[in-house]
Amino acid sequence: MSSTEVPQRLRSMSPFEYCIDRDQARFPRDVVKAKCVCNEACFDSSGSRTRATVSMPVDIHMSVIHLDGVSGVEECTKSSCFVESLRVSVGCHCTSLDY
After folding, report:
1. What is d(CA 9, CA 60) in angstroms, rounded to the nearest whole number?
2. In this structure, are residues 55 and 40 in contact, taking their beta carbons and an 8 Å threshold?
3. Domain tally, the chain
4. pTM confidence score
5. Which domain, by its residues, includes 43?
6. Do 55 and 35 touch, CB atoms closer than 8 A?
């Protein structure tokens, strides 16, 4: 497989995979999250792991609607649904161990 056929997210110095977080009591039900492939060392420009940096997720906060006892957002009332903040990893990056 050539490098152009490998997804860019896997060619990164801090590669990540996508997974689906599914919750039937939430709108949207499916949220795509990134998971770092390397929990420790990142890759350097030659493709070797380096202990000078670590792979860390890049997170955002996303507003979702929690559905309490209803099957869809169209059935929501003030007492059956509420907005909550969900922390979602959207990618990974390398960071130095020197703080």
Report:
1. 18
2. yes
3. 1
4. 0.74
5. 8-60+88-96
6. no
